[in-house]
Amino acid sequence: MTTRNTRLDPMDLFDVRSELSDDELLVKDTVARFADEQAIPLMREAFENHSFPRELIGQVAELGLLGSSIEGYDCAGMNAVSYGLICQELERADSGLRSFVSVQSSLVMYPIYTFGSEEQKQRWLPAMARGEAIGCFGLTEPHGGSDPGNMKTHAKRDGSDWILNGAKMWITNGTIADAAVVWAQTSEGIKGFIVEKDMPGFSAQEIENKFSLRASITAGLFFDNVRIPEANVLPGVSSLRGPLSCLTQARYGITWGVIGAAQACLDEVLKYTDDRVLFGKPLSHTQAMQIRMADMSRRITTAQLLSLRLGRIKDAGQLSPSQVSLAKWNNCRAAIDIARDARDILGGAGISAEYVPIRHMLNLESVITYEGTETVHQLAVGRELTGINAFG
To answer: Helix (H, G, I), strand (E, B), or coil: what is residue 161?
Structure first.
């Protein structure tokens, strides 16, 4: 039996890094460097100013982070674990930055790639991969988001076109999007429509006064007799399976992303408790602080192993939405608890944007809610266990 004398990485106690391939390591380290050098220095001010740092879009695109899992169409064709690592390192900077990439990749480019015509793919995917076109995803509606099958937005045929009416709410990228993938009820089932920003009757209005995801653009979308040509209808799906499959992709990325937010909070706590001296010794020397930080590490390590296994299952083509629900539920809960405890450990300093926990804590209030609330994912797992649908 051999023992190890060197200290473990505080952010990776189970050495998940050693489980990554050379390509995955290159992705992780490249995005981590981008986050440290380019993104993190902008995020505090962006959060305080309620603005998305659009100057990062070009750099994100140059790194191949938009539509990274798509093969062809100027996309990088990375595996699922690499996409997860991208989300982790971006959310270590801010959930708003990860949300931008998640929406562009999983909620806009994915449905166009999976359900779109070849003409739609050629028109939109290369431009979106290069960051020249921005997309948003319209599913959630003002009356409630947890029951997408109850959507009120509808489209009716009018000759060779469709007439779209309704509204969507809480839409990331809404006011900067060149195209919105909008889901609507039709007489032929739920269909996806590519609504372009200059189509008459389509408008987007930014949601102000948010205290979460302030470094992200959130909007309402409104459709007043918007005429949509048949060429802008996604031909490959006519059911709720379409938008739900997109959400599965996005939720998968979130399971990784929140790990980055949690790591950022633990890293801040480690530094703060080492420097802060109370009652004659650094806080890090006390049992209470070590127990609390050990619990943070336990939660982060569990989340890392869960997401890595989930990524391997996804890359093997064996992914179940219930597995994603379990990981989203577990990892978001772990991250928000870590952020809240980190905020508390920092005391009065914890409410200052000089330190990252308050920003991550507020962001995670949104992340634990969107793409399915914690309760929705608990019920999804319960349905898998019992075979009984207890929704509603």
So the answer is: strand
